[in-house]
Amino acid sequence: MGGAHRLRCASPACLLLAFLLAMPGLAAGLTRRYTFNVTMATVTRLCTTKSIPTVNGQFPGPKLTVREGDRLVITVHNHIANNVTFHWHGVRQVRSAWADGPAYITQCPMRPGQSYVYRFRVVGQRGTLWWHAHFSWLRATLYGPIVILPPRGVPYPFPKPYREVPLMLGEWFNADPEAVIKQALRTGGGPNVSDAYTFNGLPGTTYNCSSGKQSDTFRLRVRPGRTYMLRLINAALNDELFFAVANHTLTVVQADASYVKPFAATTLVISPGQTMDVLLTAATNPSSTAFAIAVAPYTNTVGTFDNTTAHAVLEYALQSPAAVRNLPPPPLPRYNDTGAVTNFSSRFRSLASARYPARVPLNVDRHFFFAVGLGADPCKSPVNGTCQAPNNTRFAASINNVSFVMPKTSLLQAHYQRRYGGVLAANFPAAPLRKFNYTGTPPNNTFVTHGTRVVPLSFNTTVEVVLQDTSIQGAESHPLHLHGYDFHVVGTGFGNYDAANDTARYNLVDPVQRNTISVPTAGWVAIRFVADNPGVWIMHCHFDVHLSWGLSMAWLVNDGPLPNQKLPPPPSDIPSCS
């Protein structure tokens, strides 16, 4: 992609790209190369020793460090018995859709023994993102952080921290996660839940067989008076998480690789897929030599969930295993405290400064209303004569009552070749075909329809989507992730969305910019983006169980008229589905 003097475009995102490419040191970013060898490795957690998929034998996987404007070249070799792909979660992938990674959306998976090189540039983003497998439930152990530093000579818009620490929050299963989801899909019921939450792969002191040693407990050593930046990432498969550090206040400065107006909080909420950079200043005269760091779930599900609390350690001086096992925990909200979640989430605002403006789309070309939630399928192929969802049905999930069917080939390849027949239908409904009281009493018929249906968009279309939770199978929040784009969160509320009244309360001045947002329990959220990145982009719930049940759809963004607005040809090494 050329310099800004050759970049002709009019959309806000494209103008931002032109501005960024004109910045000194950014247009000529470095090329950074990494190699991912996907192999099985033996690890022990909670007294369970098992073989898990890893990248380069590491769990979590290696950290990728880039500067804004750099190009990444990541060579992946698949040495395990599963198919696999990798997604660079939150990276815009401007005209590099072939590198986005979701299986059967932008590529066919790498089969055992195959390789693929992901090539893309990081433009207009800074902060923390992450990478993970995007095939079945392999991301349970195949994940790692992406640290995006500002260009050289460009400071943070906050005091530079003494140290920066990626902290990935995850889930540990004693069982094989692939076996867990296969069993759930076979029986039609909910999957078995995880056995522990983890900090950088370690379960900490609250679980059986966790001793408090450094081999099973994450410890962050700090110096009095120093400020640390925690690069938080929720890599859990199926759980939103509360996060707190006993006796310490955190300052939030970034969300999903976009700066926000700093604000202080004692308890955070972070959904699967989301990232958050927070500043922690160590006390000058601490009241203790160590403090507990805690995570616990937030959920309103009517099903089972991992209702445990995990602890890590913030230590001012080295602690014995016995000492860290007895640290008092920080107070956390109850697992279903939606009020605490709302109070925290409502505080996010874009920085909206001269250097980092909030380019909010003010005029909308196309409006969409998506009812998001669970549903049911009839009991086919019962196990022992029954299916395990309510009323002898099978669990399903949908958007506008369409449960997404994963194709057998890459949607992006089909789009590039203009061979849509038998692959996809460009008729995803812009609103539910059957309206009902979305957050009230569910309709009698909760069966979903199925299909590989997409929304076609002309290049540069300004889009508004209202994401409405439903009460079918119980109201609960859904963290929706949009590939290929950031979006502005212009409004949110509880109950059923009312365009006549709710639109007037939109924030069009400094709304937060994200790539993953939780649809509130029994509520709605409105997002806006400009479709200026050609390709096929999936939008899906980042609870993997809901993704497995079909809670996703795809946007098909057509080429623009100019050469730099068109999808390039596929790489020569892209895996084949045949």
Alpha carbon gyration radius: 23 Å
Mean pLDDT: 94
Spans of 5+ residues with little confidence (pLDDT < 50)?
A: 1-9, 17-26
Largest sheet: 6 strands, mixed
Q: Would you report the number of β strands?
A: 32
Provide key terms for this protein:
mainly beta, 578 residues, six-stranded mixed β-sheet, 36% strand, disordered N terminus, 9% helix, single chain
What do you see in this structure?
With 578 residues, the chain is mainly beta. The strands form 7 sheets. It has a 6-stranded mixed β-sheet, with no helix packed on it. A 6-stranded mixed β-sheet has the order 21-20-25-30-27-28. The protein starts with 11 loop residues before the first helix and ends in a 21-residue tail after the last strand.
Brief sketch in words of this structure:
This protein is mostly beta strands and 578 residues long. The protein has helices at 12-21, 177-187, 321-325, 338-345, 411-417, 499-502, 544-548, and strands at residues 31-45, 48-55, 64-67, 71-78, 86-89, 115-121, 127-133, 143-149, 163-172, 196-199, 219-221, 227-234, 240-245, 250-255, 258-265, 267-270, 275-281, 290-298, 310-315, 366-377, 394-399, 402-404, 449-451, 454-457, 461-469, 478-482, 487-494, 513-514, 516-519, 523-531, 535-541, 552-557. 9% of the residues lie in helices and 36% in strands.
